[in-house]
Specification:
2 copies of one chain form a homodimer.
Chain A lengths: L3 H11 L2 H10 L4 E2 H8 L3 H13 L3 E6 L2 E6 L2 H12 L9 H7 L10
Antiparallel strand pairs in A: 1-3, 2-3
Chain B binds a DNA duplex through α3 and α4.
DNA sequence: AAGGAACATTCTAATACTCGAATACTGGAA
DNA sequence: TTCCAGTATTCGAGTATTAGAATGTTCCTT
């Protein structure tokens, strides 16, 4: 059970198209930096920056293999949630004013001094 | 099926502690601004700003009732995902270097000109 | 009408984020 | 050794986000 602050930080970290694309890719299996870079068509340094950001929260991690760094998803549950988020339909549901009115009136009834 | 860009924007929008707290509250039922403000102990103007941000993506909406504005979750599926995210445990899963190595070597085998 | 409660809007300063450019580091092949 | 592929780091400028202060609007009550 994390604080809202921590969860918010995590969501904000996830909220970048390149980082989402990286997660999407790594969800299919480990991959080295150059391959990620070519897949996303983003400069290598920038990929590294985003990988560092993702690593800072342990969303991804890597293994060294020669001079390759094979990145992989370090928190599968989190990646799964993200994938679900990417796919999920979240349509707007209209609610009748009457229904809202019934539930949502002022809680504190103007307490005098 | 939205673009990564749109999804990233949405995640970034969700990635703020006050906005998460608002969503958390509204997930329990509609509520007017002053009640939200008192619950969160955040200045009213700031609450309004965050509500406006959430409304810009139709995450919340409101009904007018006198001079009250009863805000409510406009996309229940989305709110449900957010709540799940707040609760979910996403532990780091260690992977053996051998396992990663097996899967993650270089895809392009250095094609010469 | 007049006043106040409820809420929104605008502006601003501070802070945070992002990217590109340049450069550094490292291991393996030659 | 030397060189190169693969990757990381640092820095700076441009941009976006945020909170607070101040003020505006609207509706209700009296």
């Amino acid at each position: 059970m994390n604080s809202l602050r921590e969860n918010a930080d995590l969501l904000r970290l996830l909220g970048h198209p390149t980082r989402l694309a990286i997660i999407q890719r790594l969800a299919k299996g480990p991959q080295c930096v150059t391959d990620i870079q070519e897949l996303l068509d983003v400069p290598q340094a920038n990929v590294s920056q985003h990988l560092m950001a993702l690593r800072s929260r342990r969303i991804v991690d890597y293994c060294e293999h020669g001079n390759l760094r094979c990145y992989y998803i370090a928190r599968p549950n989190l990646a799964k949630l993200v994938m679900k988020f990417l796919v999920e339909e979240c349509p707007v549901v209209e609610r009748s004013p009457a229904e809202i009115k019934r539930l949502g009136s002022r809680a504190r009834p103007v307490v005098p001094a």
